[in-house]
Amino acid sequence: MIKLSNINMPLEYTSDELTAYISKKLKLPRLCEKDIILLKKSLDARHKDNIHFVLTVAFVTNDDNAVMKKNRMIKNISLYEHKEYTLPKKATLSKPPVVVGTGPAGMFAALYLAQCGVKPIVLERGLDVDSRKEKVRQFWENGKLDTECNVQFGEGGAGTFSDGKLNTGVNDPLSRIVFEEFVRHGAPPEIMYESKPHIGTDRLSDTVKNIREDIISLGGTVIFGAKFTGFECENNRVKAAIYEKDGQQHIISTDNIILAVGHSARDVFYMLADKDIAMQQKSFSVGVRIEHKQEELNRCMFGEMCDNPALPAADYKLSMHCKDGRGVYTFCMCPGGVITASSSEKDTVVTNGMSYYARDKENANSAVLVSVTPDDLGDSIFDGIELQRQIEKAAYIAAGGGYKAPSVTVGDFLDKKITGKFGKVIPSYPIGTSLVLPDEYLPDYVCSALREALPEFAKKISCFKDKDAVLTGPETRSSSPVRIIRDETLNSVSVKGLYPCGEGAGYAGGITTAAMDGIKCAMAVLGRYTERI
Questions:
Q1: Alpha carbon of residue 92 to chain centroid
Q2: ∠80-82-87 over CA atoms, to 5°?
Q3: Would the pLDDT of 164 be above 90?
């Protein structure tokens, strides 16, 4: 096959126009649409009077070498090998492996193991995705929090109630496997080529369910309401996993535990410390979520072309370093989305962001986060966790309880005063908000960094100048504040057969990288990871 990149096409281009362009560019007979594979599609909006798509395609010819020779002066052409998706080869284990957690890392670890025929047993402290959605609905509508099944815990992990963004800067062949598995289980096919792929909460929940059903059909077992409470060892090797369900303790004989519990399973981290499992502090971030009108963001980013139906809802990614060197950046930007109530512990407030596939809600929202490093903390491994808790509890109290979130306009935040009202941007947080300055719940160095960063961001995106934009907080769960240390074989350095995995263990930073890490740990269980590297 031939690959041709850097193809500029208008927003309203048709498949006929694309095939005609390729044929003319390479002096080929007219190609058939079915012979063209779209490999990448990105939006170039650098010049608002010339917004267009940039494509990379692959296609079949009768003689690839002849085409290459004839077009050797074109720098964006190359040979391309299209690799068909294949399932991993079968394997055997003497005992079924245990996977703890059904976030992206746990799901993809379990799926890989099931495809290899080793019948994993999957433990999830929360409930299946349908029951979980009902628990979340009750919390958002009535403030009734289930601490074991919520936006953080349950089938699909925290990512289920998010935008389902699959962006990653990691260049690894496993990322394509992750995308192909998502599509195979019901995700939109365009995630294979979009430069900023997303699934959306509404589509992601069905995809998660399909993955679970596939694991079970391949001989795996998925147990919901199963809280991982510990493990047994013999000769410094895992020999059993322990969990509680319905008040009863259960023990599973196993040689391998993939620990993919997510960044909010704080009780698990403390349990591991009691068992002398090596961990360390790591950098993380805290801050707030900012909301703008999506239509105003579209206008800022796309200019007069903002109403073109071919354009997606505009997004952004910003970062800077403050004068003292501290980093501030936007994260988990949700076009046309809402802010979610994401607490997992009683009497705390935690926010996150979520979009449906259509991204058609009134507001755009994004986390604006300030880096926290071990230098900001004490000597305890868990000082980061306790800082998160301190912020979440302070926010709950400052907002008046009832899981309302503290919220304020950007203008009031920068002026350090409360005027007593919102402007044109109304907070989307579902349980309700109270007017509160972030200074009442965030550390001084975080508020100082935010006040320095927002005017700088406004120099890049003009709607950040809008004093009616809203800050709602706190955002504390962007990543894990601890890392469970593992060796080059992905085993814990403390116990063989225990595989710290994914975002909660400190080895991923989003859905795609977490899923990739799950596959890597599954490969390690089967002795294939060292072969891979």
A1: 32
A2: 150
A3: no
Q: In the predicted model, is pLDDT for residue 170 greater than 80? A: no
What band does 531 get if pLDDT is binned at 50, 70 and 90? low
pLDDT tens, 204-240? 999 999 999 999 999 999 999 999 999 999 999 999 9
3-state secondary structure of 38: strand
Report pLDDT for 173.
Answer: 84
SS3 assignment, position 249: strand
Where do we find the tokens 């410390």? 273
CB crowding 76-102: b at 16 or more within 10 Å, else e: ebeebeeeeeeebeebebebbbbbbbb
- Amino acid identity of residue 357, one-letter, is Y
CB 458 within 8 A of CB 464: yes
**The model's pTM:** 0.94
Tell me if residue 214 falls in helix, strand or coil. helix
Q: What's 149's DSSP letter?
A: S
For residues 517 and 174, what is the distance between their CA atoms, to the nearest angstrom?
A: 9
Omega of the bond leading into 500 within 30 degrees of 0 (cis): no
Q: How far, in Å, CA of 123 to CA of 127, rounded? A: 10
**Residues 170 and 75: beta-carbon distance below 8 Å:** no
Predicted confidence band of residue 532 (pLDDT cuts 50, 70, 90) = low
In DSSP notation, 151-203 reads SSSSTT-GGGGS--B-------HHHHHHHHHHHHTT--GGGGTBSS-B--HHH
344, 264 in Cβ contact below 8 A? yes
